[in-house]
Automatic annotation (TrEMBL):
Compartments, as annotated in UniProt: Cytoplasm
EC number of this enzyme: 2.1.2.11
Its job: Catalyzes the reversible reaction in which hydroxymethyl group from 5,10-methylenetetrahydrofolate is transferred onto alpha-ketoisovalerate to form ketopantoate.
Oligomeric form and interacting partners: Homodecamer; pentamer of dimers.
Protein name: 3-methyl-2-oxobutanoate hydroxymethyltransferase
Family named by the database record: Belongs to the PanB family.
Cofactor(s) required, per the database record: Mg(2+)
Amino acid sequence: MADQAVKRVRTRHFQNAKEAGIKITGLTSYDQLTASIFDSAGIDFLLVGDSAGNVVFGHGTTLPVTVDELIPLTRAVAGAVKRAFVVADMPFGSYEISPDEALHTAFRFMKETGAHAVKLEGGVRSAEQIRRIVEAGIPVMAHIGFTPQSEHGLGGHMIQGRGEGAEKLLADARAVEDAGAFAVVLEMVPSGIAAQVTKELRIPTIGVGAGPHVDGQLLVWTDWAGLGNGRVPKFVKQYADLHGVLTDAATAYIADVATESYPAAEHEYPE
Ligand SMILES: Nc1nc(=O)c2c([nH]1)NC[C@@H]1CN(c3ccc(C(=O)N[C@@H](CCC(=O)O)C(=O)O)cc3)CN21
Ligand SMILES: CC(C)C(=O)C(=O)O
Ligand SMILES: [Mg+2]
């Protein structure tokens, strides 16, 4: 019985962590195996990101990803964790039209997946959506700075919040806090402005390429584990070389099968 008493991470733990100066850690996950590994290791939250468009489905951007595609992935992750807080990323085209549309999409994720919160992109422009979802009792993680769903509008993978952009970033940060977001992702912003936003807000800031002076960090797990083809954004630290490990394993397997080294006696069923 005792080991069933793993205390789940909840929104108040994000707030408490900020107040206590304890860093929050997050990774993306899209399947039950990685979710279970990261959860057991003690990660605080898992984001089922629309970055699945890049890393699961092989699109060049997140734009083609649909709610129907993310729901089964999110259900797999939410079903695998004992402690981690699971955030469902709302994809491009599933919340922008109106607060009603945003709430409808958030309801789908909450009812059909077991996620604990939703995330959507945009500051001032998404504030009414955030407010509506929060009023329905669903926690919202906001996402400002570089917002990948707007990459064509922003002109590429551009650092946000520099120069004149600092005021816009601060306005976006204040807007999502006022709208009731429990945390905010700051993506690809200079460390100084991220530090300023972090100091000004009561809610925790989660950095993705925002330097160390934020309340938590988040990375796309396949970048972090070196599973991709080597091209990762500057802000990524690769903690493993899964691309190399799996390449070596596949090469060895192909050679073993060719030479009948695999299967060996221990892999055969007796007559
Ligand atoms: N695998 C993956 N990792 C991510 O971090 C990520 C996704 N996919 N998909 C959704 C968004 C898109 N993001 C990205 C994608 C590319 C860069 C990038 O290549 N940045 C370059 C500089 C800009 C450029 O030349 O395009 C860098 O070196 O930081 C950054 C963020 C972050 N998110
Ligand atoms: C990069 C993070 C913030 C994200 O939105 C995603 O993985 O989709
Ligand atoms: Mg995303």
